[in-house]
Amino acid sequence: MSEHNDKHDDEHERPSVFRRSLLRGTVPVERGFDTVKGRLGARFNDDPIQILPYRGFGTPERFLIQGRVLQDEPVGAAGENDTIWQNLGNTWKRFESDEVPNARLRVRGPGWEQELVTDEEGYYKAHIEPSTPLDPGSLWHEVELELVHPSPGVRATGPVMVPPADCELGIISDIDDTVVETGVTQRLAMARTVFLKNARTRLPFKGVAAFYEALVEGVKPGGLNPIFFVSGSPWNLYDLLAEFMDLQKIPRGPILLRDFGFDARKLLKKETREYKLGCIRPILDLYPKLPFILIGDSGEQDPEIYREVVREYPGRILAIYIRRIGTTKARDEQVLALAKEIREEGVAMLLCEDTEAAAVHARESGWIRAGQVEHVQEEKAKDEAAPSPTEAVLKAE
């Protein structure tokens, strides 16, 4: 890893006296609550223990795996006709999770094996250096996970992405209001999306799947460019977002979310800007020879965050595509001013109304094949066609 992470760990605002006092009170409360809940759960909870692997990534010699161990009934696949109450109930299940702390897992692959232990929130995370490197010719690999304690025999398979040596570029994309409509700049709309919709009733932005598919395929036949998704949403929504992307045929990639909790370090040092930079830097450090395209929206801090990335990693960013959402004229002017700054450093940042404009620029720059712009246009037109009954009801509301 580069020195970026160490350098930036200390660049955080000092918490106010009020916030420090608040945290001193809330952190013990949450820990005490988790302890009591864990003891009660061990005695009265009959739900099965499950391993929830998240998509990992890395190189053939070193890769990251992560996930969580919970004692809950799995949230079933979403149905287009699920009621608001069903969606609300599933959201409650995701957030009222019974984590399994100090669970021991065995992770293995061809010729290697390693044991991990979950933290107090039930998360596991480790960098694996296998004795036998992964096949560099495949994009996706699988590792086996098995619980050793407290429920021996529970198994799962964890996917790991390893970009081939001949890939052309990488893509890092925001999710909220970039891939899926959430109304993140309007808190009430965001809450409604999170709590009352499911993977089938969330609406993607028009043409986004075709555009991302074009970038992943690149200009060489059979291209396998890696894509990463970074969001400020909590890990509790991982299955919902993964299912949504699969349903919309958005290319698979690691989904990097955040842990929401009353932890002093998380609350004080993981504001959105630093959190996202903390996700992006390790990706760029891990693939030092790979150039990247960054994609986000104008609603919150994506343009400012990406400007910082351009400055920290000169020569590594090919372009930045910012989707314009319903922001003010003043915000548009801010983004355009940032685009001018970044352009002076040799990187184009486009404020786009839709994916078609970004696709045209990518084609002109030689990053996607001829004909892919037309494909994006066709898919965008299909997405803009008459809405399904579910969509009509949601829009009417």
Which key terms come to mind for this protein?
397 residues, alpha/beta, 2 domains, 7-stranded mixed β-sheet
Task: Give an account of the 3D structure.
With 397 residues, this protein is an alpha/beta fold. It has two domains: 47-161, Immunoglobulin-like (Sandwich); 170-396, Rossmann fold (3-Layer(aba) Sandwich), CATH 3.40.50. The chain is built from 13 helices and 13 strands. It has helices at 4-9, 17-44, 84-95, 187-196, 208-217, 238-247, 264-269, 272-286, 302-312, 329-343, 355-364, 372-383, 389-396, and strands at residues 49-58, 63-71, 104-109, 112-117, 123-128, 140-149, 155-161, 170-174, 227-234, 255-258, 292-297, 317-323, 348-352. The strands form two sheets. It has a seven-stranded mixed β-sheet, with no helix packed on it. A six-stranded parallel β-sheet has the order 10-9-8-11-12-13, with helices on both faces. It is globular. The protein starts with a helix and ends with a helix. Mean pLDDT is 77; it is low at 1-44, 82-92, 183-204 and 262-270.
Question: Helices and strands in order, then pairings?
Answer:
Blueprint lengths: L3 H6 L7 H28 L4 E10 L4 E9 L12 H12 L8 E6 L2 E6 L5 E6 L11 E10 L5 E7 L8 E5 L12 H10 L11 H10 L9 E8 L3 H10 L7 E4 L5 H6 L2 H15 L5 E6 L4 H11 L4 E7 L5 H15 L4 E5 L2 H10 L7 H12 L5 H8 L1
Parallel strand pairs: 1-7, 8-9, 8-11, 9-10, 11-12, 12-13
Antiparallel strand pairs: 1-2, 2-5, 3-4, 3-6, 6-7
